Amino acid sequence: MADAQLNDFPSLFSVKGKVAVVTGGSRGLGLNAASALLQAGASKVFISSRKASACDSAVKTLNALPGLAPGAKAISIPADAATLSGVQHLVSEVAKHTDHVDILLANAGATWGAPFDEHPDSAFTKVMDLNVRGVFNTIREFAPLLQKKASVEDPSRVIITASVAGLGIGTIGKQGTYGYSASKAAVIHLGRNLAVELGPRGITVNSICPGFFPTKMSNGLLDMSGGKESIAAANPMKRLGRPEDIAGVVVYLASRAGAHVNGATIAIDGGAMWAKGQLNVESAKL
What is the residue range of the signal peptide feature (predicted)? Predict the structure, then answer.
């Protein structure tokens, strides 16, 4: 077996010259990931979400980052990833700027909390449409652009933002996130299927599963679950997630370092999911 070729180690975690699309990229984890990709050398990072003003604001922030590669830029393309027409609009607008896409971060998502007996059908439908159907449509519609420059040596990458709620039990009770948890479990398994389908086309598909990060989407649930300090104290790492925790995993999967990772699911929660399981076992002993 040939020795590992590490003579170009400095480029191992680089995405120099790559073109990326980040749905749900105007805030929170999506914006953190987009910032990381741009700073890691991406030439173009397309930011998409439903609100044009949010996309424009995010792009302004990203383009003001110091030390970007010459000519590197973030580009705003508002679109609704929950609808097929919205996804198709996004693809057509991206295609006006580039003939290929190297990295697709399917990050757009929604949640809803309500008691089981009162959980609205409309809310369940909204969450499943964006978190599962929207992700499938986004990957399918972008596949031709992802295949354009994909190769065995340098595959294109799809990264799905799932959640630890899709790996275990999500929030139940007064603010039960039944649709959200089910949707994240579904999209993780969708990613596994697409990894096998798209691998031969030179496209890897992996899922990241964040735990609690202080973002606009999760802050309300953090407060209802006992507060940030309490949740952090219960984590084996004694803290919540930070922007660099997401950034590092996304850059790893998007760079040469992650070229042979396909169909994986990576939890980014400091081990909180396993600690929760331990607490449940201890409670059962009492």
Answer: none
CA atoms within 13 A on the CB side of 152: 1
Query: What's the length of the chain?
Result: 286
Query: At 180, which amino acid appears?
Result: Y
Mention the CATH class of domain 15-285. alpha beta
Active-site residue, 180 included: yes
Place of tokens 């031969």: 200
Report residues of the chain scoring pLDDT below 70. 1-6, 215-227, 277-286
pLDDT at 277: 57
- For 207-236, write each residue's pLDDT tens digit: 999 998 876 655 555 555 566 787 888 889
